[in-house]
């Protein structure tokens, strides 16, 4: 990708799944990648793929104080931030019959509030670098499936936030886009709240409605994110790129 070498890019939720793949792809492009997450051991596993270009900070992005400390550390170590990838998220299965306000609150705290909080706190450095923000939404925004109303609503909020901020931050030279993955095989499926036969049936049902006939791989999402944060996308803002095997059609 054009212009990624030497850029300083932050990836939230970089310890596993799509976040890990994004970090590794950006490191391959010789960007300086800082991954954030709550689990030190997972962050270290990601950084082990390229300990020259990937560093890590244990951070709970649902905690404003943690965000502030992470940004302060990045500013001290690198002096700049060229890109922010808001990737951290959770995707609980939530049938309306068992709707739980606590699950709603925790999902929106991570999937929505933390994105706004991190973006706000990172804004001075992003404005200085005329940087780029990439948010992760979901193919479910365009093609919802049953028992996912809370997660889908949170990602629809991120799409709206992306479009609004792209106009709000354009005068500052900051581009804001989002990527909508379809079903991707990651550890996120370990946190659905489904087990055994119920989980297998759910995964088979999802796979059956993907036009390409298979789940995606994290690396396939990472390539789209790398493009959007690179100089090759210098005239791209306010968009949602689908990387979903046709799922959202």
Give a written overview of the molecule.
This protein has helices at residues 17-28, 40-47, 64-78, 101-129, 149-169, 196-208, 218-229; strands at residues 8-12, 32-37, 54-58, 83-86, 132-136, 175-181, 240-243. The chain is of the alpha/beta class and 249 residues long. It has a single domain, classed as Rossmann fold (3-Layer(aba) Sandwich), CATH 3.40.50.720. Strands 3-2-1-4-5-6-7 form a seven-stranded parallel β-sheet, sandwiched between helices. The longest helix is centred in the middle third of the chain and has 29 residues, at 101-129. The two termini are 28 Å apart.
Quick rundown:
The protein has seven helices and seven strands, in the order E-H-E-H-E-H-E-H-E-H-E-H-H-E. The chain is of the alpha/beta class and 249 residues long.
Uncertain residue segments: none
Shape: globular
End-to-end span in angstroms? 28 Å
Radius of gyration (Å) = 17 Å
Lateral strand order in the biggest sheet: 3-2-1-4-5-6-7
Structural class of the helices, strands and pairings? alpha/beta
Question: What is the strand content?
Answer: 5-15%
As a percent range, the share of helical residues equals 40-55%
- H-E order: EHEHEHEHEHEHHE
Domain count: the total is 1
The CATH topology corresponds to Rossmann fold
- Highest-level CATH class: Alpha Beta
User: What is the CATH architecture descriptor?
Assistant: 3-Layer(aba) Sandwich
The number of strands is 7
The CATH H-level homologous superfamily: NAD(P)-binding Rossmann-like Domain
Can you give the mean pLDDT? 95
